[in-house]
Hints:
alpha/beta, Rossmann fold, four-stranded parallel β-sheet, four-stranded antiparallel β-sheet, 44% helix, RNA-binding
Amino acid sequence: xxxxxxxxxxxxxxxxxxxxxxxxxxxxxxxxxxxxxxxxxxxxxxxxxxxxxxxxxxxxxxxxxxxxxxxxxxxxxxxxxxxxxxxxxxxxxxxxxxxxxxxxxxxxxxxxxxxxxxxxxxxxxxxxxxxxxxxxxxxxxxxxxxxxxxxxxxxxxxxxxxxxxxxxxxxxxxxxxxxxxxxxxxxxxxxxxxxxxxxxxxxxxxxxxxxxxxxxxxxxxxxxxxxxxxxxxxxxxxxxxxxxxxxxxxxxxxxxxxxxxxxxxxxxxxxxxxxxxxxxxxxxxxxxxxxxxxxxxxxxxxxxxxxxxxxxxxxxxxxxxxxxxxxxxxxxxxxxxxxxxxxxxxxxxxxxxxxxxxxxxxxxxxxxxxxxxxxxxxxxxxxxxxxxxxxxxxxxxxxxxxxxxxxxxxxxxxxxxxxxxxxxxxxxxxxxxxxxxxxxxxx
RNA sequence: GGCCCGAUGGCAGAGUGGUGAUGCAGAGGAUUGCAAAUUCUUGUACGUCGGUUCGAUUCCGGCUCGGGCCUCCA
Length: 443
């Protein structure tokens, strides 16, 4: 297997440190509001990688950790803005997040650490950094001294000079260098806080992932993933914290970053307002599988322009595949085609893998098995085509089909067509099969 | 200002130093009461200017255009 490594900007062979325990960490959401689909791209991309790794190294040979950030100023502000508590915000958002992940067929990670449960390790790590001379306390804050780490900027390929030139934010007076970043900051009485050697306060953003990845996976691990926008400063800072605190050369050996989701060519973002939430799309009737497939339709490092047209096309492709599965009686999963594995093993080339799936339509059992690698085609064709259907609804549809069948037998095609139109208006599409059998599906 | 990424046929989207993936849409045929589904056939590509090469969409450089990052956005 080989994957692009942001550290070297090259596609490199992937060799886990311990093949019986392949360790991957992915940055999860900050739970202050519904996540938009851009936030779900890494969830789906790294879920597919998770599936590939397990296929390759064994179902139990992968340890996958994906955090939830439940301490953040955005959460505090959201609680104030909506006049509720932080717990209400985070609980509600996490529940919605998990519900969306289920819809997208994203498997649960082995660890899903929440920041609030790891404050102690964070404090301990900050203390280590200060003791080691990598950080300093000032006015209730603890700050990382970027000059103490000579490799600072290596991941994002920035020099300290570059950063200083670009500093666009007001520099706090207690910082020794504008690039120094917050490890711990003081909380007011109204804000959530934890005791620390620097006073009551809360952790900065980056320290959480350093502490949680260490707790869940160890000081070094194999893959660290996330969105492109995390390269700087988040991942750069994680590396500095972890390597300095742990005295290690590397934090993660392989850094993988997915490209942005765009809308009409522009990055999807909350501030631009050009986003869709998964909930919104599901409410419009788009299946989670269609959304998932759309997110995998481009290579993970490429920008992906998201649109309803794209989902329409993805749905059409899934219809076709499910049609083949249905025709062959929904077979049990067969063999995963090696070419699919080869495609995914080549820097997670999902479009190539999808192209191969299209060649497997004469081998439905293998198609189903191969699609599992992408988390697709896992439902039976009946539920794909019909969805939820009540007994009453089913009886009504069947009665109309029977009526049409009789009309056809009587050569009363006007009535037959009228019944078809009636069903169409109900969102039901008929398919006449050989032998006088008529089947239906939702349009 | 610094840094990073991209530019492929109507659309989406891989890939490759030389025999033009894949899907959708389009056109034509088979099938069909109609329709759907299926199936067969089929067209159109590599931003621009140079360089390297027997040969470049593929490597190198300039340019143009687009996107992104530069302290808390996946």
